[in-house]
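@channel sequence for tomorrow's demo:
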Amino acid sequence: MRLLLMIHSLGAGGAERVMTLIADALVSRGHEVHLLTLADVQEDFFSPVAEVKRVRLALASSSNSLAKAVCANIRRIVAIRGKMVELAPDAVVSFTTSVNVLALIAGARTGIPVFVSERVDPRAHALQRQWSILRDLTYRRARAIIVQTKAVADWYRERLPDGVEVATIPNPVAARTESAIPSLPVSGPYFLAMGRLVPQKGFDVLIRAFQLIAHDILANSLIIIGAGSEREALEGMVRERGLQSRVHVLDPVKDVTAVMDSAHAFVLSSRYEGFPNVLLEALAGGIPVIATDCPSGPREILDGGRYGLLVPPEDPEALATAMRRIATDAALRTQFSSAGTKRVEEYRPEVIVTEWEQILDGRKKPRRRMAPHSDN
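structure tokens (generated this afternoon):
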């Protein structure tokens, strides 16, 4: 198949990482893959393999007024449509809401099937009103809507007309690589957290939780890896609490294997999620994990707590209790370490990419995964 994949950028984010993984896997199976970004190359953090043909529109600048935003999006639609017509792909796959909307409008009356994929839980993620309206109007034109959990699939089925296909395909877990241990500002065991430094990820809650156990668990530090608008505020929280020698906010890394392998435990403190890649990667590495029972993803991935500790979101006391338990219970760490590597078998890239192939070429619909527990 000739495929056109679309996303805003290949910056340091979960959706961007997954799109790169899927593009690489599809190319390895003999498909012709073009990967289009609205952003230019300067914003690339992840790099697909050379066989993936990159298309960079360099149309990702922000607008400071509604009129300018409308004009900018018209230019994007025209450019996207031009690439669709030029490449004549067998299918288009788009990631994230705003790009999905643009792709569906651009693809109207071209006869090219457009598959859109949500990468976050729409029940928790607030959209600007105009994007919410456009999503509801345009998504009914999609050949299929791909989401990551059953709960989100159910939400879309309730909102969209009968006949709109909604399918569940979770993220693949990245293949592990051998890499040198990076230089880290800690000498002992550490809790690790990773993600965009934005309110969604709840790193402020994590810092408060660590403060509650800092004097009890003197050997442990906390490392937060990421980039984003909240960095200055988070670093301010660390200074205000006198935790500069124990809590470190570091820049993103492309290869997370070594930094995860050296961690005492991985902590996901999010207020909401889509389907957190880093949680899968921690399980694949045999790292004990703690995660908030947020919408959506962690409960499904951890099977209701079978493969890691689940705590309520927005609850630093509960998170601190779980962190203390993991830090002091070697038997529990061993149990979760062994179980986690088995859990990720169904998320291997070859399994997930086969499901993408099946829905893109129409051979069959991917199975709708049934979580053993609700992720509400």
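heads up for whoever presents: The domain at 2-172+348-360 is CATH 3.40.50.2000 (Rossmann fold).
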